[in-house]
Write a structure and sequence with these properties.
Order of helices and strands: EEHHEEEEEEEH
Strand order of the largest sheet: 3-4-5-6
Radius of gyration: 16 Å
Distance between the termini: 31 Å
Largest sheet: 4 strands, antiparallel
Shape: globular
Helix content: 10-25%
Structural class: alpha+beta
Strand content: 35-45%
């Protein structure tokens, strides 16, 4: 399992996808303790949505909602948004979006008017089929620009 993760230094590492949820659990032990807690909450929530044999094609930190931070997880069967709960006890909620309900995928890079940005600048725009033939737009912010191309490519392949 450890071959799927290569630690570059105390802050950075690379994950070789696809991985299983069980492999992700062992990989997060290599993360700093303060960061690891968020991943533990996310994995606990993902266990309810992701099967043991279902592969995770990509996971990245993102802001699935305007005021909430969390993770965006792409599996073989669906797109999952993991949103962190606030409060004393913490935790996470998941929201699943089936690939068949995604009509369009687009992306953007946010401009940083003051020079160096304090957050990731990648933005993902999704058009999702709604009820009665209507469609809704969903914007996911704070995505790492380096993984944005891979995310868009995976999602476009899955919705074909």
């Amino acid at each position: 399992m450890a071959q799927k993760f290569q630690k570059l230094n105390y802050k950075y590492g690379t994950i070789e996808y696809p991985i299983f949820l069980k492999e992700l659990e062992s990989i997060i032990q290599e993360f700093p303790k303060s960061e690891r807690k968020f991943y533990e909450y996310a994995i606990k929530a993902l266990k309810k949505e992701v099967g043991k044999k279902e592969k995770i094609l990509h996971i990245t930190s993102a802001d699935p909602k305007l005021t909430k931070f969390g993770f965006m997880v792409i599996t073989e069967k669906k797109l999952l948004f993991v949103t962190m709960k606030g409060g004393i006890f913490g935790g996470a909620d998941t929201e699943a979006v089936e690939f068949k309900s995604i009509k369009e995928v687009d992306f953007d890079i946010a401009s940083s008017p003051f020079g160096t940005a304090t957050m990731q600048l990648g933005i993902l725009h999704l058009k999702i089929k709604g009820k009665l033939g209507m469609s809704s737009k969903r914007t996911i912010r704070n995505i790492d620009e380096h993984s944005l191309d891979r995310i868009v490519s995976i999602l476009r392949d899955k919705i074909k």
